[in-house]
Amino acid sequence: MKIDDLLSSIEPEAVGRDIYQLIKEIYPFGRSITGDGVRRTLDILKQYIPLEIHEIPSGTEVFDWTIPKEWNIKDACVKNSRGERIIDFQTSNLHVVSYSIPINRIMSLEKLKQHLHTLPDHPDWIPYRTSYYKETWGFCLSHNQFLNLEDEQYEVFIDSSLKEGHLTYGEYCLQGETSDEVLISCHSCHPSLCNDNLSGVALSAILGKYMKALSLRYSYRFLFIPGTVGSIAWLYTNENRVPRIKHGMVLACLGDRGKSTYKRSRRGNAEIDRAAAHVLKHSRSDYEVVDFIPYGYDERQYCSPGFNLPVGCLMRTPHGRYPEYHTSADNLDLVRPESLADSFLKCLKIFQILEGNRKYRNRNPRCEPQLGKRGLYGALGGQQDAVADQMAMLWILNLSDGSHTLLDIAYRANMDFRTILAAADALRDKGLLEENKE
Amino acid sequence: MKIDDLLSSIEPEAVGRDIYQLIKEIYPFGRSITGDGVRRTLDILKQYIPLEIHEIPSGTEVFDWTIPKEWNIKDACVKNSRGERIIDFQTSNLHVVSYSIPINRIMSLEKLKQHLHTLPDHPDWIPYRTSYYKETWGFCLSHNQFLNLEDEQYEVFIDSSLKEGHLTYGEYCLQGETSDEVLISCHSCHPSLCNDNLSGVALSAILGKYMKALSLRYSYRFLFIPGTVGSIAWLYTNENRVPRIKHGMVLACLGDRGKSTYKRSRRGNAEIDRAAAHVLKHSRSDYEVVDFIPYGYDERQYCSPGFNLPVGCLMRTPHGRYPEYHTSADNLDLVRPESLADSFLKCLKIFQILEGNRKYRNRNPRCEPQLGKRGLYGALGGQQDAVADQMAMLWILNLSDGSHTLLDIAYRANMDFRTILAAADALRDKGLLEENKE
Amino acid sequence: MKIDDLLSSIEPEAVGRDIYQLIKEIYPFGRSITGDGVRRTLDILKQYIPLEIHEIPSGTEVFDWTIPKEWNIKDACVKNSRGERIIDFQTSNLHVVSYSIPINRIMSLEKLKQHLHTLPDHPDWIPYRTSYYKETWGFCLSHNQFLNLEDEQYEVFIDSSLKEGHLTYGEYCLQGETSDEVLISCHSCHPSLCNDNLSGVALSAILGKYMKALSLRYSYRFLFIPGTVGSIAWLYTNENRVPRIKHGMVLACLGDRGKSTYKRSRRGNAEIDRAAAHVLKHSRSDYEVVDFIPYGYDERQYCSPGFNLPVGCLMRTPHGRYPEYHTSADNLDLVRPESLADSFLKCLKIFQILEGNRKYRNRNPRCEPQLGKRGLYGALGGQQDAVADQMAMLWILNLSDGSHTLLDIAYRANMDFRTILAAADALRDKGLLEENKE
What we know:
The structure is a homotrimer.
Chain A: H1 3-9, H2 12-26, H3 36-45, E1 52-57, E2 61-62, E3 65-66, E4 70-79, E5 85-88, E6 103-108, H4 109-113, E7 116-117, E8 139-140, H5 143-147, E9 153-163, E10 166-174, E11 181-187, H6 194-211, E12 219-225, H7 229-237, E13 245-251, E14 260-263, H8 271-281, E15 287-290, H9 299-302, E16 311-315, H10 337-356, E17 359-362, H11 384-399, E18 401-405, H12 406-413, H13 417-429, E19 433-435
Parallel strand pairs in A: 7-8, 11-12, 11-13, 13-16, 14-15
Antiparallel strand pairs in A: 1-10, 2-3, 4-5, 4-9, 6-9, 10-12, 14-16, 17-18, 17-19
Helix pairs in contact in A: 2-6, 2-10, 6-10, 8-10, 11-12, 11-13, 12-13
């Protein structure tokens, strides 16, 4: 099955439901950049795609960075003087600052406050905080709860461990005809936060599941990695594979109600950038394409100047631009099956362009070939599609001088890539085009 | 006489009248892509320019195409049961589908209707239809007449012939100083339709007549050819001449009330494209410059990727954008002498740029030369023209580094080419410029 | 002291006062393109900077030009029949057309009128007129006075001399680390006109005074020259030095209330053009950047095609765009200390960019280096400056591939150059950047 067939057979509702269900399933796990929460998550994903699990030992040097100690947590709470667990890790893993060191102590409210984090502007939400590279501890809670804390002694308890261990990530390479690769990368290090980035994790897994059976031109490499240190570790341990990456996208924040946003690679005009912009432009819904900036997700690493890979980032509302970002309100209500399905289809359409994009050479370059005698004109009477198909053929014949790709032609003709692709297939089948593989 | 002198001596009213009269004279002939209607038309044009007539035999292969059989028609009609010629070729040659095969038969209204063409949206107009490459027959009529046809037996009669013969076209090469050529191409295959394209045919002939006596830098080649197959045949039989074509325009639809439209060549930034855009921009009337698309007139062939000639298309309202297009309403009322004269002058002004455009080298490139001591400053007192002339001189001196043409300078200075040309002539005459012929 | 230190220590009010005072001091002198008025002016400037005075003899050929005779004037007036000096050089040196030949004659009003110049649109103002290259004489007066002249005999008296002498100009080269030069050029040939161009003259002198003590990368060459013939003479006599000029600005009309205007060099995208545009853009006040045109001040000569130097022009309201231009109303009321100080600071900020602009190479080009472990992250808590500094570091690391300058990065990041410069210094000090001197 080709990707074109997949696209015409797919049921958006079913896909949206599948992705949403997977998010729901992995939502409760307490993930961080290392630890068992990640392992449990990857185990679930294995039900969808044959994931290979990698473990990199703490202390391993990866470029300028070092794999940190592994962090695990069993329980944590703050108890008031009546022994009540008033801040309780069991009710939300966001309550504990990620990478908090173990502690078990009684302290005054004043002392405790130095370790409490709240969001005064959103007094009902619990913030999400981490401290990966500085050993400390802390609790997060709603500002309203914070305001009601009484001036008494509190028992602070965190049953965590920070020890030599491993950084865990998942990898799935879907083999295509060639060893040229398309990279799909998502960060899987956030705890119970849905849009950022269980949406990217679940969507990538379901993408892999649906694409598994396809006959593909490119190989597709799916990475489920902790943010920053994960992509750095992968790049470090796979430097020999890096030149194979011809296109790539970081997938994040794909389930909210916002419009689709594509952030260009550092190159700015890579094929993936033009393919993604084309799909968004022809999606008949609002969208935004933004330039690369060296802040965001793992595209920061893929696009560092020593790699400068053609890797962009597909999102809906970008990180930091929606109020629920990095709070307990980024929950199962924020992400919607419809948005997830829409993002999923856009990914597939982008891949469809990558799969189908080629440079052809018009074999009758002097004057137009006579299309009528080859049955290439649509039925008389001027049906809309027939007119578009004929224009697509004329554009392809005119621009197929060996230097324009079909995507170039789609842009120049201002037509959907799929119309151009279908017309090119028809012309090639009649012997009017030959591929320019240079 | 130089083209500059012609432009200053020309009387627009007289030119408009001349072109209009010629349209009127050739309007009645029943032209098609082959046949005697074309021959009669070219015979008339010979009264204006020394046209060479070419005849290419049916069956000749020209690139991917074959010269079709020659079609001629003497008479045609549909008679009702009372023997009345209710659809009559003698009243309008549009009534018969071009290239209709001969027929003489009685048939029911139901059968006849399969061969009738109307325009329901313009119920009083007769459409123009052709069937060059599929042997069939048909009649065109107004939709109102069609609705009134009674359900009876009709005698259908077409006295046409479709036989081995020739494709006929006219060619006139006006020799200039160099063998570099400017191509002017118009399609002469439409029957009684005025704007499309007797306007182009008549305007080209009158252009040739007025330019005959000029002393010209370029040679100007005028082609009067049937659309598509005519330009293909010319390109095929003149492949050795093609490299001489340095600039060119297809002339079509030049007589309606609409604003001038220039369609760029496939190259998009050829000298002809910039010259035409410059003339339209400085014409003080509304205009449009549009990008090349591989649909339209014979620029499709000239701009096929194997030739990629710098040939654009000058029109007023483009084909298909005015309701009368390809109907009996494209008649002598649609075209106006004023529009024809305006189009004619724009052609001449475009040629004036081609003739005058050169690269100069400032012979005093270090600092400005002193213009005052050479009498190159206008009268004191700041007359508007003197200021413009001085600015033109300063621009030319500043940009004549051997890489900018006068047209480049006109664009950069945002001044009319003629002001720049006059200033350059003055500077050159004082020895301040030398031509860079590289 | 570095230019950065100067900029942070400078007091705008004091600078504005200094420049204004200097203008006031040299305002009364009767300057022209040659003569003692220029010498007196340069003598005053010597109190600020160690000016070298050059004298080029009349008759010297400089490219296409010849150094004119030297013009001096002691007195001039027009007396009425009652012997009253009704037009009196002693009250304003603008009353006499510059380069007027000596005369002493009685004549009728009718004859006299042929030598009188007024401004009917501004009837109270005296125009400024010159006749350098045509030997004649004339008086300028207000139109109101002109209208009141009685029809009688007038005594016309000009005690001027036009003899073999010299063209005088001042030059100051402030030596930097390298022999690469920044050219600062101002025309010093106008008599009692403040904005055009005592503002440029005085501002340049005070710039030199303030910069004298700096430790600079570039050498700065200040030219105080008569317009046109002065820059031509300098270029002619310094052709060997011209290749050292890496950047430059003509300074003129810098004291009026108008917004700052930068006119690009002929190159259009030279470093000086981008530096000046950057400073104006980040100045938080209205501004304009305009393309080069071959009219204006001495940039006409520096940007002639044989030199094509990267020299722009910094102004406030450009010449000819304010009504007081070249009239007696361009006086001490038109220029303001605030505007002068603002122009001065913009010059320094432009030089700061030239001084600080470099290409770096990220020494950890593969993935981001870990900034945290080097203490390069600002205090936690998200202060605005800390966020900007971090973004600046990420931009520099991402774009420092050896091809982008810091100014390129400032543009791409849309951040003030100074923020980028400070971040680059911090990164370089931590060993994360090395300069690419290629």
